[in-house]
């Protein structure tokens, strides 16, 4: 079957390790289902895999892709929860939790095999392209907001780095839940788009906000860390799920953190139950994932290049 896969690791030029071509189709195994992929979306996790983060050379070649929506063996339209081994279903209780492409072949292929437990019904109102955006970036944003930030309708939230998949999702989700959402971006067009999606205001990175916020959602890392900490009210919460600009800020702001009793919470992906709730939230509110570009699978390299350049707003989706 045709697939986009990591053939080798290149830490400096990760796309050099990307190959497009034939790979073995999944073989039947007890407790697992084979899904015919209709759409899959890119994540920065795929670039990290090509850099050798979360994977070792002995597991290559590895089909990339965490997210997908498709059709299972019984003809059901499904969305894949991409965290494998979270409960032991299909893998045994001793296998550590992992994300697709770390230990198991991913979704950038004609077919993918996952534990049957990891399948959720795709709501009829969501297209395959929209549903494929939810299991990683949108689920991460959902967990950051509603599980780890502890915010409620009417609270204020700062989202750093508008334009990225998680940040864009957080803006849309926060607005739909009745929060005042502020956003930052270096790009004027992205700031404007953030406001169109529901942000109360959007600012350049480091800009002073109208007031301190209840929570900050951080995916940028070192470049925005100090601003994130300084933007919080006393007792506020900073939730971090990524560090695309690096994980070693020049100013950790430790004094401010302990003096103002700020909470720093790490957040990774989400549970199957949270994904089910997210699907329901999209259905109930009518919100939909923001899609930047849709490409056929055989043009996956273009998608990776676009994501590397960072000139996008929303998700890149690959279809068959």
List the defining traits of the structure above:
single chain, 320 residues, alpha/beta, six-stranded parallel beta sheet
* Main sheet: strands, sense, barrel: 7 strands, mixed
Mean pLDDT comes to: 95
Number of helices: 9
Assembly state: single chain
Succession of helices and strands:
EEEHEEEEEEEHHEHEHEEHEHEHEHE
CA gyration radius, whole angstroms? 19 Å
Shape: globular
Q: How would you describe this structure to a colleague?
A:
With 320 residues, the protein is an alpha/beta fold. The protein has nine helices and 18 strands. The strands form four sheets. Strands 3, 5, 6, 9, 10, 17 and 18 form a seven-stranded mixed β-sheet that branches. Strand 11, helix 4 and strand 12 form a beta-alpha-beta unit. The longest helix is centred in the middle third of the chain and has 15 residues, at 134-148. The N and C termini lie close together (12 Å).
Topology overview:
Layout: E1 2-6, E2 18-22, E3 32-41, H1 44-50, E4 62-63, E5 69-71, E6 77-80, E7 83-84, E8 98-99, E9 111-115, E10 119-121, H2 128-131, H3 134-148, E11 156-159, H4 165-176, E12 180-184, H5 188-197, E13 201-203, E14 213-218, H6 225-230, E15 232-240, H7 254-259, E16 263-266, H8 272-285, E17 291-296, H9 300-309, E18 315-319
Parallel strand pairs: 11-12, 11-14, 12-13, 14-15, 15-16, 17-18
Antiparallel strand pairs: 1-2, 1-4, 3-5, 3-9, 3-18, 5-6, 6-10, 7-8
């Amino acid at each position: 079957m045709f697939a986009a896969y990591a053939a080798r690791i290149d830490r400096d030029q990760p796309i050099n390790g990307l190959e497009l071509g034939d790979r073995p189709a999944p073989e039947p195994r007890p407790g697992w289902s084979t899904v015919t992929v209709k759409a899959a979306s890119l994540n920065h996790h795929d670039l990290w895999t090509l850099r050798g983060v979360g994977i070792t050379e002995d597991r290559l070649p590895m089909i990339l892709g965490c997210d997908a929506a498709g059709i299972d063996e019984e003809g059901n339209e499904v969305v894949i929860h991409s965290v494998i081994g979270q409960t032991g279903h299909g893998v045994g209780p001793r296998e550590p939790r992992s994300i697709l492409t770390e230990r198991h072949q991913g979704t950038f292929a004609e077919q993918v095999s996952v534990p049957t437990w990891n399948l959720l019904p795709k709501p009829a109102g969501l297209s395959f392209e929209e549903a494929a955006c939810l299991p990683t970036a949108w689920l991460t944003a959902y967990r950051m907001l509603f599980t780890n930030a502890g915010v409620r309708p009417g609270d204020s939230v700062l989202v750093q780095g508008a334009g990225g998949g998680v940040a864009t999702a957080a803006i849309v989700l926060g607005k739909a839940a009745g929060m005042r959402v502020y956003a930052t971006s270096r790009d004027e067009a992205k700031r404007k788009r953030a406001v169109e999606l529901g942000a109360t205001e959007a600012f350049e990175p480091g800009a002073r906000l109208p007031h301190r916020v209840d929570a900050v959602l951080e995916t940028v890392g070192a470049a925005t860390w100090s601003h994130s900490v300084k933007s919080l009210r006393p007792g506020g919460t900073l939730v971090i799920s990524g560090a695309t600009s690096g994980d070693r800020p020049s100013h950790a702001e430790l004094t401010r953190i302990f003096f103002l009793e700020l909470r720093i919470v790490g957040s990774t992906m989400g549970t199957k139950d949270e994904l089910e709730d997210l699907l329901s939230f999209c259905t109930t509110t009518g919100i939909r994932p923001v899609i930047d570009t849709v490409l056929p699978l055989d043009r996956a390299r273009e998608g990776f290049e676009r994501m590397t350049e960072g000139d996008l707003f929303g998700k890149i989706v690959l279809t068959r």
